[in-house]
Each structure stands twice: as C-alpha cells, then as structure tokens.
Amino acid sequence: MADRKQDLFGRLADLSEEAVQRLSEAPGADRALQALKGLGDRVDDLQRRTRGFEELERRLATLEKRVDAMAKPSAARPRTPKKP
C-alpha cells in the first residue's frame, strides 16, 4: 500500500513538472507570470496599508465617546439662562 502511494505521488509530481514546463513555453506565459508576481507585490503593499486600520478604529471609537460625553448636558451643573 505504501509503495502505491509513493508511486502515485511520484507520478503526480512528474505530471505537474511537465505541465509547468508546457505552460512556461506557451505564448504570453512570461507576461502572465510577471502579472502574477506584480499581484503578489500589490497584495503585500495592501496588507501593509491595512495593518494600521485597527489602531485607527480604536482611536476613533475613543474620540467618539469623548465627543458624546461632551455633547450631553451634565446633571451636576444645571444650566442657568443668561441675563441680558
């Protein structure tokens, strides 16, 4: 049974190597590979940019709470109308 698995994996590896070789020889394959490499670079850049969003969201929530607290009239200080 172990021999069959090893043989199957070996055959799959050979087939995949052949498929990659055929793809690399296909017309336009170099442009496709360059596009894939560029995509990886763009994804890395996007990850770097979005990493800071969690910190910004936390800071924004804190500021929103402070603004809400400032907007509410407090019960401790009753407002008196101004005299003209």
What are the defining features of this structure?
84 residues; mainly alpha; 0% strand
Notes on the protein architecture:
- The structure is a single chain.
- The chain is mostly helical and 84 residues long.
- The chain has a domain at 18-70.
- The chain has three helices and no strands.
- It has helices spanning 2-25, 29-50, 53-71.
Give a short account of the largest sheet.
Answer: none
Average pLDDT confidence is: 82
What's the shape?
elongated
Distance between the termini: 99 Å
Structure class: mainly alpha
Unreliable parts: none
User: How large is the radius of gyration?
Assistant: 31 Å
Helix content: over 70%
Number of helices: 3
Question: How many E-type strands?
Answer: 0
How are helices and strands ordered from N to C?
HHH
- β content, as a range? under 5%
Condensed summary:
With 84 residues, the protein is mainly alpha-helical.
